[in-house]
Amino acid sequence: MINRELPTIVGRGLAGELRELRKAAGLSVRAVAGKLDWQGSKLSRMETGQQRIRIEDAASLLVIYGVTGADRKRLLAMAERAAEPGWWETYGSGLSAWSRTLLQLEAEATAIFNFEPLLVPGLLQTPDYTRALMRSCGISDSDTQLRVATRLGRQAILTRDEPPTVRFVIDEGALRRPLGGGSVMARQLRRMVESAERPNIAIQVVPFVTGGHTGLDGPFMLLDFPRNKPVVHLEHKISGLFLEEPDQIAFYRREIDSLAAVALDPDRSAQLIGEIAAEHERE
Description:
Layout lengths: L8 H16 L4 H8 L3 H8 L7 H11 L3 H12 L6 E4 L6 H12 L2 E6 L10 H10 L4 H14 L10 E7 H5 L5 H14 L5 E6 L13 E5 L6 E5 L3 E5 L2 H17 L3 H16 L2
Parallel strand pairs: 2-3, 3-4
Antiparallel strand pairs: 1-7, 2-5, 5-6, 6-7
Helix pairs in contact: 1-6, 2-3, 4-5, 7-8, 10-12
């Protein structure tokens, strides 16, 4: 049964936005709490995803932060939906609320599993690979620059002082698709081999010889947290979906086990990635 007092994905996205608004206003947690006659721990729990944000509390914070108009309406709508499990959002260009929430979740996670059947995972992409991908998808130059910068920002979690444990499983087809040409792909794959040398990163490849496998119907990411419920993220062309229900999480953990059973171990995967990089270099 869902604990409605703990933040759902919507609530955690709202928490991240309110935290950034406070910082942008140049206010400390203690200063804001004093204005509202709150204990500082209440606001801290809200901002760190340990306590659900009620609509009346969100409204009070927005007054202090000077948020009005469309932004106020959007954030209060998020507060109204804060008890909803899961979150589906359709988004357009730019950095959407969905994107901001994913960034926050990745930053909070202690363990991440990411399966990709078609592309190099975003957390491992080089800027040239991302640009080639955006061009092939018809993304404008301005949006491409924003997405490249965002992906580079996301990757900072891999090298911070206390990084999450991240396990990538990638279909061999993603490594052979020559996005940007042979030299771009070779550099991309060499970067992956270097990344896999970090103790917190494991990369496994599902080889072509496997044939069919359970991951062919799409990519997914499963994130685990020290205090909050695990989350599954599914990304589509113009939408994103977050899943939180226990049966949904259990399903994707079984998917992880199935993929691990057919993937090469990390050492053999690194060897194969290096071999494919050499093939791209000869193109």
